[in-house]
Amino acid sequence: MSPPPPHEPYVPATESPSELTLRGLLLGSVLGIVFGASSVFLAVKVGLTVSASIPVAVLSIAVFRALGRSSVLENTIVQTVGSAGESLAFGVAAALPALLLLGYDIDLVHAFLVSALGGVLGVLMMIPLREGLIVQEHGALTYPEGTAAADVLIAGEEGGTNARTVLWGFTAGGLYKLAYAGLHLFKEIVGTPLSWVRTTAAGVSQRVGYTGGSLSMEVSPELLGVGYIIGPKVAGITFAGGVLSYLILIPLISFIGAGLEQPLLRPDGQLIRDMDPDTVRDAYVLYIGAGAVATGGLISLVRSLPTIVTAFRRGLSTFLASRRGRTAPVRLPRTERDLPMSLVLVGSALLVLTMWLAPPLHINLLSALLIVVCGFFFVTVSARVTGEIGSSSNPISGMVVATLLFTCLVYLLLGWTSAEDRFMALTTAAIVGIAASNGGTTAQDLKTAFLVGGTPRSQQVALFVGVLTSSLFIGGVLVVLNRGATAILPESHPGQQVSDLSGETRTQHLYPWAVSDQTLAARGVTVEQLKGPLWKQGLELGAAPNGWELRSWNALRVEDVANTDVRLPSGEGVKVSELGAVRQGPERTWRVGHVRGAETPVPTGTYLVDEAGTIQYVVDPGIGGRITTYAGQPLTRYPAPKAQLFALIIDGILTHKLPWDLVLVGVFIALMLELCGVSSLPFAVGVYLPLSSSAPIFVGGMVRYLVDRLRGGSASESDFSPGSLLSSGYIAGGAIAGVLIAFLEIASDGAWTRAMDIPSRLGDTPLARMFQESDAWGLGLFTALTLLLLVAALRGMHGVRTPAEKP
Length: 807
Hints:
Helix content is 61%, strand content 11%. It has 807 residues and is an alpha+beta fold. Among the domains are: 22-159 and 335-375 and 411-486, no CATH class; 488-620, no CATH class. Strands 3, 4, 5, 6, 9, 10, 11 and 12 form an eight-stranded antiparallel β-sheet that branches. A two-stranded antiparallel sheet has the order 1-2. The protein has a two-stranded antiparallel ribbon with strand order 7-8. The relative contact order is 0.18. The model is unreliable at 325-330 and 797-807 (pLDDT under 50).
């Protein structure tokens, strides 16, 4: 059989239109930061990201068309730079939050170095692999996302673009998110427990209904968009995992534990019968989910082993073959010019030295060498797997888990089991994961450039630019999300000390409050009932030697404290001064301490202690925090399921304190699903996530199912159909709005976000109660957003131009 004819790119090698331009790099960097931030938000929210290549390509075409004229190669550069942010975001947001769960904080310099080094490693490793994987195996490796992006760029060059759809989605998603997360015009989560307390005629309280069961849904534009993009199959499997957790496992544990008189796996002594569904999930089901997620990731990796072995062997052989006899690269056609091999060798050596010598990373020479070796292996694997089955099926999590397991076992054999060693193990796996993720995305981008006729050297330079610019902001987004939702809450552990006292301190400002029991009784309220409403306004109510005092971590004027509005349980709004006079009090200083894997019943984390070392407060992080409510008030929390898994693996191996019975239940659930022919990884993610997170994903998947049934289009068409583009806008708009709200929370110490709270300003009115309490109101608005997606997708199904319909 004769070999296939050589590929003829859209722009021939003999032509040299504008390509690597300053405006292209700037626009790509901005779009990469925007979509990278939205990917960080999604990764800590539900452990998922979606490809940004196609939306970035569409927006690039639209922006440059508004500015005049651009070439398809310049738009390709923008798409390449912009997609780098999304590829880095998954590794950063999936791994680095595990530091919070290990008792550390997320440092901006550390986050930048991890993302930048991992991204640069991924690009470097792909330079020698491009010839073999992209060129020589052009007919064998399809690279579906890269091919679809090339189709969009070529269609845009010839007049077809749907950028307005992305922008409309971005606007709708952003305003919708602002309405509930910033202005509080409707509830963020709607739902109901499936059991309730009934008082009999004899005055005995009985719980009736389905004890432990509950239904809930977050009315989120970004999760709705994710569900549409990933499709009905994966969305349905993920939701099924949530059904298992909230309608089977939690009720089953509640039923069995109702008669237990002794705590089960709870160092704080809490009984199962005293737990609500979320507490049962945190105490038991999370470990089951972790076992299932780890098993699902490893199964996907094992299933890919033939591909992995073939990828590595072919990648190495084609790399060696492609470099033989190349003595005069300047004579190569424009479409075959790569950055020199010397850059790869020198760059790899510099990476090892940088990782070894950079103080924030705390990586020794062995770990630095492990990163480069594992990075080259998994970049090769990732690049080939994405070529065969696409980025969405690339088992990056499994690769990170495999790296983490291998690293931890090596550390265990060497006796490296301290808290600092766990920090180093996580950093090692994070850099490898980012390199693998970026390697797959880089391969897709190089495929796009190969199809449209881009210059490889220019693409590789653009990739480095995209990695470095996105790295400057991705860590900051993670820090903003975490700090914006971090809560300092009273918590005591009698007789226990923190294992590591730092030199940091936190200052608390006190305001004695002359409120009496008689005053409260006249209002029909107790002190306990005031704690939640006061805390919502940024004030903690505590006992003082001569009565009560208000506490704040911000230096507030006493007049502002006195004029703070508080909503009583009756719905009446009063000022603090109406309940009792407030005066300026002293300051109190607490020391910051950490518990990091020590043999103590105190959970790992950061605490504030008094001079005697007694724990008084917990600094519960916004990402991966273990406390979901305080004084009846819900706390904003980002579950970060992948980070939770990585932290469990590290602690489980190096400290021997993982509840393996529960983990093994999850392992066998995943194995059972695989035996039934069901992909266990998305199901396991559903088990791990709150049902409120998987429910809107399921709704989006059902909309996609309906649209696809009515349209009957191919998978490649649906990647840039109006529904997918609008969903991409939902995701980016909703996520960016969430990041901005978190930034406002930090920048003003919560003052700006409290000022945006419209119901609190309306006082005790029916409209305010509807905004705060009505499930039907929030569900109705979410239904309207869903219908908008459905209508946009169906209306555009006859108007979208596919690659086969070029004019």
